[in-house]
């Protein structure tokens, strides 16, 4: 069994990864700005900042860690300042990479994002497509990739570009959709809902991260589900299986995007430039490379994983509403002006 470090180990993905690692018998160090809810003798949970080089050196230098899984990232939700998000995501990655190199750790696996692009594609997105982020979060992930590329001779860096990560417990902006379905409200798509936007099942992503570490190959990989349904069909699947009285309605794209832009400018909406650019766009990663080089395969479709996430929300709604001091994806996003649309639905 190995000793590994997970950044962002108290977040949605990080906590699932930590749980899998300790279940597999590994010794895990978790670093996060928030406390970790997992209690296990094989877990050392540290509340700390990855920009703190002295802290990282104390955890990594001479301690025999074999790998680092870099899941930590601040999101563009709530009152977080752009400067703080950039500092944490970019300077945090820079500090971590330097500490990993100094400690002689052979492998770092980095969770990147489809937010590297702010436009849709009429074909699957490949690893050699040049990123073109439209907002600060995507730009910070792209900068993180470039920082790791600069350490090519120091350790094997595996970059996994992820679409929306889905599993039981995934909330954030999805909780707004789930509230509409739970209350039987009309669920809206922009345009006719025929666009395809890929998800990735968290357990499938974790499987890929572990494969990347064990093979030690490094490189950039796009990941995501197979057989991606239209968003209209995905929502319809969840509504039908949930026994909800919701119906799907269509908003005209032009006016809807203008309204989203205005709401963002007035700071009354949780949706930003990425969302109003991608709200009716196609985005699917080409997963040929990760399947060929890592032997990885997805296990769930978009519809199956979104239903799992909804059922968790429905079973735990009261407890979710009371949550405090948890990561952005483990609590409900503030609905803001979208509440008006809810009242009209």
UniProtKB/TrEMBL annotation:
Q: Name one Pfam family in it.
A: Epimerase
- NAD-dependent epimerase/dehydratase domain boundaries: 4-224
Gene3D superfamilies per the record?
NAD(P)-binding Rossmann-like Domain (3.40.50.720)
- Domain of life of the source: Bacteria
List the protein's name: UDP-glucose 4-epimerase
Q: Which organism is it from?
A: Methylobacterium trifolii
């Amino acid at each position: 069994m190995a000793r590994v470090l997970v950044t962002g180990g108290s977040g949605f993905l990080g906590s699932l990864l930590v749980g899998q690692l300790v279940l597999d018998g590994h010794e895990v160090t978790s670093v996060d700005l928030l406390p970790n809810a997992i209690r296990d003798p094989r877990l050392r949970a540290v509340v700390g900042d990855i920009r703190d080089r002295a802290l990282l050196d104390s955890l990594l230098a001479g301690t025999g860690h074999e790998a680092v899984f870099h899941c930590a990232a601040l999101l563009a939700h709530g009152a977080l300042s752009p400067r703080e998000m950039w500092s944490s995501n970019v300077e945090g990655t820079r500090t971590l990479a330097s500490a990993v190199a100094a400690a002689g750790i052979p492998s770092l696996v980095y969770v990147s994002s489809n937010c590297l692009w702010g436009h849709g594609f009429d074909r699957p997105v490949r690893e050699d497509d040049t990123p073109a982020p439209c907002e600060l979060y995507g730009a910070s992930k792209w900068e993180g990739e470039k920082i790791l590329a600069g350490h090519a001779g120091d350790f094997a860096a595996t970059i996994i570009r992820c679409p929306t990560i889905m599993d039981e417990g995934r909330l954030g902006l999805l909780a707004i959709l789930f509230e509409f379905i739970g209350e039987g409200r009309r669920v809206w798509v922009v345009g006719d809902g025929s666009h395809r936007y890929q998800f990735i099942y968290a357990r499938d992503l974790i499987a890929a991260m572990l494969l990347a570490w064990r093979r030690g190959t490094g490189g950039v990989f796009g990941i995501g589900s197979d057989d991606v349904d239209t968003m209209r069909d995905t929502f319809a699947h969840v509504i039908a299986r949930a026994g909800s009285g919701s119906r799907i309605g269509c908003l005209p794209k032009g006016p809807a995007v203008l309204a989203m832009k205005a709401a963002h400018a007035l700071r009354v909406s949780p949706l930003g430039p990425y969302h109003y650019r991608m709200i009716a766009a196609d985005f699917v990663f080409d997963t040929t490379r990760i399947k060929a080089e890592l032997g990885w395969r997805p296990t769930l479709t978009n519809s199956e994983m979104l239903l799992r996430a909804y059922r968790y929300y429905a079973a735990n709604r009261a407890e979710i509403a009371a949550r405090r001091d948890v990561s952005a994806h483990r609590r409900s996003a503030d609905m803001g002006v979208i509440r008006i649309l809810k009242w009209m639905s």
